[in-house]
Amino acid sequence: MRDTFQDELDQVGNQLVEMSNLAGSAISRATTALLDADIQLAEGVITGDAVLDQICSDIEANAFELLARQQPVATDLRIVVTALQMALDLARMGDLAAHIAKIARMRYPEQALPQPVRPTILEMGQEAQRIVAKAGSTISARDSERAHELEDDDDLIDVKHRELFRILLSSEWTFGIESAIDVTLLGRYYERFADHAVAVARRVIYIVTGERHPMEYPGATSTSVTAEPIGLDVPGTDAER
Question: So where are the chain's domains?
Fold first, then answer.
């Protein structure tokens, strides 16, 4: 019975790594579609979001089945519930990549981005892809130290987000309100994408060490541990691609 339960947890872990790979591919392709006004690439990101949503639904169904059939408690319950939360974070990242692609599609055949913001958006897209790859590797390797690094890694996205606002508010911005709205939304989408990747990393830390992060578990402290540390036993998978 215990071996069966562990096998099912392994399957969920593999699905989470797959979701992180898909989210990384989506944000990379959405950024390219945005910069190159590539309508086919944008459409691919938008339609491909359904794959992430389906995997999330599968994980949700598996989690509820595990809860009903195995009735896990303490650490096992923590793993199942936290894995479900990670799936929701990763699905939301796919949604955000699709939102970026929809702006590229909406402005096609025109370029969605005025020249002054293109370098900043490119950097945000590259950093978002790197962050989700790192989040995926923390799931695969159960690496809490690497997960802790992500707390600082999304700072660059925040810096670039503020940089966009400086450009928009400068006297040199002559591209109109509509374009400014697009850029404002895009900055927010990239920022939220990175935030969800950090949330995934925090959940990995919780699974591995039992350490709660106050932002993910309101009312908790970093030392409020209720069960012994344990890892989500997931076979190694290279999430960085």
Answer: 2-209
